[in-house]
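Support case: user asked for a sample of complex input and structure output to validate their parser. Sending the pair below.
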Amino acid sequence: MSLILQTILDGLVLGGLYSLAAVGFSLIFGVMNVVNLTHGVIVLIGAYLAYAFWHGLGVDPLLAIPLVMAALFAFGYVYQRGLIQLAVDRSSLLASMLVTFGVALMLRNVLVLVFSPDFKSVTPSYAFTVFFLGPVTIDLVRLSALGASLVLLCVLAGVLRWTAVGRVIRATAQQDLAARLCGVDVRHVYGITFGVSAAFAGASGAIIGIVVPFSPPDEALWTINAFVVVTLGGVGSPSGALLGGLLLGLISTLTSQLIGPQFPNAMMFLILVVMLLLRPSGLLGNAFSGSR
Amino acid sequence: MLAEGIRAHRWWIVAAAVGFAVLLTAPAYLTPFQVRVGQLFLFSAGLGVAWTILGGFAGYWSFGHTAFIGLGAFVAGAFELHVPLGSPVATMVAGTALGSLACAAVSAVIAYPILRLRGIYFAIAMLGVSQVFAELTNNVDAFKGTMGINMPNAVPASMEPQTFFYYVFVAATALTLGVAFWVKVSRLGYGLVSIREDEDTARMLGVPTERYKIWAFVLSATLTGLLGIVYAHALGYITTGSVYRTDFSLNMIVYALLGGIGTIVGPVLGSALMVWLTQVVLGRLLDVHMFITGALLVAIVLLAPHGLVGFARKLLRRGAGGGA
Amino acid sequence: MRRFGRRDFVKTVGATAAAAGLVAAPAVRRADAQAKTIVFGGSVPLSGRAAETGLNVNNGYLMAIKYLNEEMGGVEIGGEKYKLELKMFDDASDPARATTLIQRQIDEGVDFFLGSFGSNIVLPTAAITERAKRPMVQSGGGSDQIFTQGFKYVFGMFPRASRQFISSVEFFKAMSPRPKSISVIFTNDAFSKTNAEGAAKDSKAAGFDVLEMYGLPEQITDVSSVLASVRSKTPDVLICTTHDQNSLLISRQMVATNTNVPLLYQTLGPQLATYRETLGKFATGICVQIYWDERAPYKDKFFGTAQKFAEYYRKHVQRPIAYHTAGGAACIVTYVQAMQAAKSIKTEPVRDALAATDVDTLYGRVKFTPEGDGDAILLGPAVGQVQKGVVQLVHPAAAKTGTLIYPTPKWSEKT
């Protein structure tokens, strides 16, 4: 019994990380239908930036999150306006995906050149603290990661719901033509959305960095995880990402415990496919314009 | 319809025939390295064209066609390992047939449900399918994905292996091109294009969209599997990581886009360019070739958004306009 | 991080492509122009999962060649002086790329090859070099399949994966108190899995009770459920036949979930300084397989001792030295000694000399089995244990630099 309880708890904690790591992907997909294959690499850049702050300046990775987010927001905005939008205009939405694939290759190469191919790891003082809750063990790093993820997801949900920028983003996602008619600068909104997305990807990277060791080839993993989370939860909303992430975490640990430790990935993709077939707009079904 | 198509495309057919004649004689004066580059080109071109039957004609972009490379290769490998026939060549032929058949069967089973998805959702579902196959191959001991399979050696003693597989690739790629051409000029092809342009209207006008899509999917998957099986034999030893590669899936799209999406000649040109760049030009670089490959992709989408074919058409049109 | 504008990157692409063209052209010409150069070819993975080890091995090759050319003024073989040259390419862990590009080197007349990593790369490339009858000495592919093909020109610095636990099981037997039970964690790649199966087989044969074999996917982000199982069914020795990054993930999560075992034994990981710094005091007591240590009393014809090789390396390279680096350097040293023994730089005699090799090198005494892999006793691993942040050798008795701590304290009691 306590084993099951432990497994569920582990799954939820892991799921919190997956949620935050996927929310940016979900937002871009929901608002502009762009599949951003650069996503995983941006997550990693966040992790490397946090590593640089921690290793170079001794800044705690959780405190470095605002800095990482600011830097990546700027990156995301420029990336969208300078490259993605250009590709969408000149070619097609699906072709823009190839641009993101190309940029992912480039950035991964740059990470290898700048930080070497070695894995890196960030260990703040609280990295190894454990506490016990009855029969279950909880590890502080993962718990604080979950906490930080939830806080950030709430912030994003709040921004989207109550601020002017958020309203404009949502309006553009629903009907870009109508938004344009109302005087919205859609391109600027796209840029901001991309920036926000990159910022949250970076934040999740900073958090991931204190939980697991990371190296440049991991980027593919985080992109693919984002795909799964978004399909499970639904496109374009923080709550969808949260739900999808938590489910993914649970699926992962439960499969590993009940079926076998080598099968969580297989199960995760199987559920991805089945979900798509049964309910392509995700469990919450609150997709913007992306699904049909 | 076929006769008409042949007449309309006669110059293309002549060009293809000349091309294949050149390819058939090429190993006589190429170095072994160039033969291997040729192998890779034929493999890539075949994959691009096989993908095009579904992705280019019908507009159903798959992100997971490597599923069939892997499936075909592992089915063929397992068969040849456990049921060796009299001669190695017979074993290879039987394994190849069985592996291709497995791809056909599996794709036919998943076709109906998965083709109900459209656009990016179909693409992601295919990515998921390929990952499921890869994970199961790697983690279920019986499939031997981790330890790998030694493919039986069917190369005749009088022949260099790279030359032998070069010719096998020529055959497989020719078959792929032939099928793609047949699809293009048949009723099926016109139906697929109508699906790409507007699926709902096509259905309303009486195009049997479901049936057409399933046909395109099964053909595309089977040919991809066939090419994958040949590739596996050419390597001689495969693990999950050699045949289930997401970069295969994405490269098929790159070839098609680079050459010109929806055409048959497009992926052939695209793969020729990419293989030449990545293997010949960038082959010696130690650490920046990935960066350059990425940069080239970006440049291609931005500078030649409709591919080499589109670019050539634009040039031709501009030339014609200038002359008038 | 610098962002590239469109104009910038068009420029960069143009420039790099042009540069690539320039680099490519003279390389071909030079190969014929200088007759008295011995060229070593082959691939290393410098991008992708195996890049970290790839870099270490490549540095070993580079340093050995630099030393032999600059400090020794070249090597003398059969009365003639030769310079050495290295021509490696990045295979990016892609077998298609590796096989195509290895063929190019064969066509260009490269006679001697060094190897890559991962059996799915090494095996197809070795099949090509074997067919061309060119020797390959490699320190990256340890999987059994490479050495059971009947290849005659392929040699490995490591014993095949299934034999890499022979010396470790001897170590378990020598421990006091003698442990009773063992569990193994591995990832589903050929190397890790073969290693794990070898460990289980040898442990069972030696009378240990193998409790569980935990197989994991190749890439992991969480091992909580495996650890939960380890807590409920705790072995005396927990073996992880995992690669560096995964080993650290496992040990970190063991600390963070308070999963205690009397001995944690990892094939790879703790030999890296990054690993030990990350874990800090918690690293104490973790055991690791050590194939080479610069303090070991190995004599080398060219470098003198293992220690001197390490010093030379540190003078020229920033990156911390790893045993893969020494393994890489040993490939070159072994090659050169085989050529000197054969008094020839023709492939056939060199192959025969390699097969007969029995020499002392900076990496230890190098001797190959008839199938070509490293001798399981001579080139098998010693056992190290992290004590106060450094790795001390605790087995075999002859190489000891420290005494084994066993059972190791619980995480919460480590200081």
